[in-house]
Amino acid sequence: MKIIVICLVMVLLGLLAAGASFGAEATRAKADVIWVYQPGLFLPPTCVYPSTAASPLGLTAAGALLVLQLIILINTGCLGCKRRSPTQPNSNSNPNPNITARLCSGIASLTFAIALVMLLTGVALNDGKKNCYVVKPGVFAGAGVLCLATAALGIVSFITLESEKKGATPLTQGGIIEVGQPQFPPANGVKPSSLPA
User: Fold this and answer.
1) Number of C-beta neighbours around residue 152 at 10 A
2) What is the pTM of this model?
3) Helix, strand or coil for residue 48?
4) Residue 15, exposed/middle/buried by CB under 10 A (0-12, 13-18, 19+)?
5) DSSP letter for each residue of 153-165
6) How far apart are CA 159 and CA 120, in angstroms?
7) Reduced to 3 states, what is the DSSP secondary structure of residue 122?
8) Contact 149, 105 (CB under 8 A)
9) Mind listing the pLDDT tens digit for each residue in 65-113?
10) CA-to-CA distance for 18 and 142, rounded, in angstroms?
11) What is the pLDDT of residues 20-57, one digit of tens each?
12) Distance between CA atoms of 111 and 123, rounded to whole angstroms?
């Protein structure tokens, strides 16, 4: 049940971030609606930007993306290196860590960083008061696609680590396989000393 709830939260945050990003793309300030006027002969031009919903939507997307990344890092550890539980021994519990989980977690961190920079840059340029810059088409939409990629990769990393943990054998958990005579005789009446070696 815990896995389903965490995955559902990741999906919802990813969809919220992507939806807000696509909404910001649709409502961003465009160059043809910005008013430029020259207040004086030696003064730089001043731009008047229309009020749009792009900045609040971009900030909402950035906030949802940040919470999503925190949930991914808490549940998968840094780059898929999940923290050791208190019941595991101090030795390295898995000498061959799952490369899929690490790779997905690393790429999710990269897509998170790029999407966050795109969103915050888009918000800053959308409300810019100097130099009359506007957000290029596709900045918020690209960030939205990266938000979806971050969520998907985080979910794959989390599920991979959880399935590895659930399907682990005693040998992969650092346990010891004991060899020797059985403590109780077999149910079919065969004596342990007559078993083939």
Assistant:
1) 17
2) 0.71
3) strand
4) middle
5) HHHHHHHHHHHHH
6) 30
7) helix
8) no
9) 999 999 998 888 766 555 545 454 444 444 445 788 888 888 999 999 9
10) 9
11) 999 999 988 776 666 667 777 777 767 777 778 888 99
12) 18
Dist. CA 127–CA 48, nearest whole Å: 9
Segment holding 37, helix H or strand E: strand 35-37
Rg of the chain over all Cα atoms, to the nearest angstrom: 27
Residue 20 · residue 64 · CB < 8 Å: yes
Which residues, in sequence order, are bridge partners of residue 46? 37
Task: Give the span between the Cα atoms of 195 and 185, in whole angstroms.
Answer: 11
φ, ψ at 46 (rounded to 5°): -115, 140
CA dist 118 to 30, 37, 58, 121, Å?
17, 29, 9, 5
Calculate the alpha carbon distances from 129 to 31, 38, 49, 76 in Å: 13, 14, 8, 41
pLDDT value of residue 120: 93
Residue 117 has pLDDT above 50, yes or no: yes
**Total residues belonging to the chain:** 197
Name the nearest CA neighbour of 155 among 43, 29, 52, 13: 13
